[in-house]
Amino acid sequence: MPTTENTAARNAGKTGNAGKAGNTANVASAMKAPGVRVDGLTVVYRTPAGELPAVRGIDLELPAGTITGVVGESGSGKSTLALSLLNAVQPPGRISAGSVEIDGLGDVVKLSGEDLRKARGRHIGYVFQAAQNSLNPLKTVGKQLLDLGRSHEIEDLRGLVRDAKDLLGRMGMDGARVLDSHQHELSGGMRQRVGIMLALVLNAHLVVLDEPTTALDMITQANILRIVREVHAERGLTTLVITHDLGVVAEVADRLAVMYGGRLVEQGPTTDVLSAPRHPYTQGLLRAIPRLLGDIGEARALPGRPPTLGTVPARGCVFRERCALRMDVCETEEPPVVVRGPSITACHAVAAADAGVDTDTTAGTATAGADAVPDAAHPAETADAPESAGAGEPAGVQGTRGEQP
Ligand SMILES: Nc1ncnc2c1ncn2[C@@H]1O[C@H](COP(=O)(O)OP(=O)(O)OP(=O)(O)O)[C@@H](O)[C@H]1O
């Protein structure tokens, strides 16, 4: 394992002229885990129906030195949020509002050109979704490592290779052999670890892992998560893990943020959110997890489907179509942010429950208010969606389908 000092010294070595004094300062600031503050982030994609938001009004803090997990169903905007941390949303997408402040770097949304390119890799390491397939099949891993080093103007390429071998060794691989290999000579788990090595080797202290274990078998997945935890602690990182798998965040994340329809609906310490979820969507996600022990039939799929860019409601709560606790106000008003200790939930029903307000529902299937808000400690027993909805569309879904923001 290369020491932070060695790697930083190698990186700093290339900045050895007066004109690059600013880089030296950045390298120094990158030596400790940065805090990250996402404020009012909105990302839109251009579609035949106009620009539609995939991520809307996201406020999220990644405290320095923590692992944050972002979960949500496919299409909820997780990858778009992750790409925004590097200001790497590609056309037809663009960040249309908000900021991403990273300690030592400033607002990356304002960075462009060479500054942005240097920030990626040096300050922000990124392991792409399906990293197993993202290596260049025509070049050895070592050649790709050297390309990466040259593109970041690393002068001490021998040091870079040494650090890469150390990292690969740390992750249980023969570094020299892996660097000599082409993609097809490596298993999925090995490629994933190569992706993690490439994200770390330039000494980035903010690391974004997009679905780091998708398509890996259980044993390999457990190994990768162990490596993520160890490397995070040893190198002093701030880490964001994107996944659709609650098991993954339960395994690695200190904090958990739940996305639905481009919005953050709940966030807080992982143990709090998983043991006492407050948002009906988080509760539904937890209910849907099959149990290994006990009654396997207890797991209940969340009725309905998540919205697409074209069907996500422009006003009110984005989850209301699948929510057993929906009320009139959910149709028109943004859910209020309810803060309880270190946890945040955006939900009218939770706000009403906390305020002790008794509320009627439009669906007529639940009596919202203090009594009807699911018992957070036993989400599986309460707040079911209407039985008649079955596994298909819940009652009332059609009402807002096709709404355009
Ligand atoms: N290039 C694009 N053009 C148009 N729409 C896009 C584009 N990329 C993503 N989207 C849409 O933006 C929304 C969010 O997508 P995103 O990939 O961020 O979600 P996700 O939660 O990461 O999903 P997954 O887990 O399937 O990757 C989806 O509705 C998706 O269809």
From TrEMBL:
<dbReference type="GO" id="GO:0005524">
    <property type="term" value="F:ATP binding"/>
</dbReference>
<dbReference type="GO" id="GO:0016887">
    <property type="term" value="F:ATP hydrolysis activity"/>
</dbReference>
<protein>
    <submittedName>
        <fullName>Oligopeptide/dipeptide ABC transporter ATP-binding protein</fullName>
    </submittedName>
</protein>
<dbReference type="Pfam" id="PF00005">
    <property type="entry name" value="ABC_tran"/>
</dbReference>
<keyword id="KW-0067">ATP-binding</keyword>
<feature type="domain" description="ABC transporter">
    <location>
        <begin position="36"/>
        <end position="286"/>
    </location>
</feature>
<keyword id="KW-1003">Cell membrane</keyword>
<feature type="region of interest" description="Disordered">
    <location>
        <begin position="362"/>
        <end position="405"/>
    </location>
</feature>
<dbReference type="GO" id="GO:0015833">
    <property type="term" value="P:peptide transport"/>
</dbReference>
<keyword id="KW-0472">Membrane</keyword>
<comment type="similarity">
    <text>Belongs to the ABC transporter superfamily.</text>
</comment>
<dbReference type="InterPro" id="IPR027417">
    <property type="entry name" value="P-loop_NTPase"/>
</dbReference>
<feature type="region of interest" description="Disordered">
    <location>
        <begin position="1"/>
        <end position="22"/>
    </location>
</feature>
<dbReference type="GO" id="GO:0005886">
    <property type="term" value="C:plasma membrane"/>
</dbReference>
<dbReference type="Pfam" id="PF08352">
    <property type="entry name" value="oligo_HPY"/>
</dbReference>
<dbReference type="InterPro" id="IPR003593">
    <property type="entry name" value="AAA+_ATPase"/>
</dbReference>
<dbReference type="InterPro" id="IPR003439">
    <property type="entry name" value="ABC_transporter-like_ATP-bd"/>
</dbReference>
<feature type="compositionally biased region" description="Low complexity">
    <location>
        <begin position="362"/>
        <end position="396"/>
    </location>
</feature>
<keyword id="KW-0547">Nucleotide-binding</keyword>
<keyword id="KW-0813">Transport</keyword>
<dbReference type="InterPro" id="IPR013563">
    <property type="entry name" value="Oligopep_ABC_C"/>
</dbReference>
<dbReference type="InterPro" id="IPR050388">
    <property type="entry name" value="ABC_Ni/Peptide_Import"/>
</dbReference>
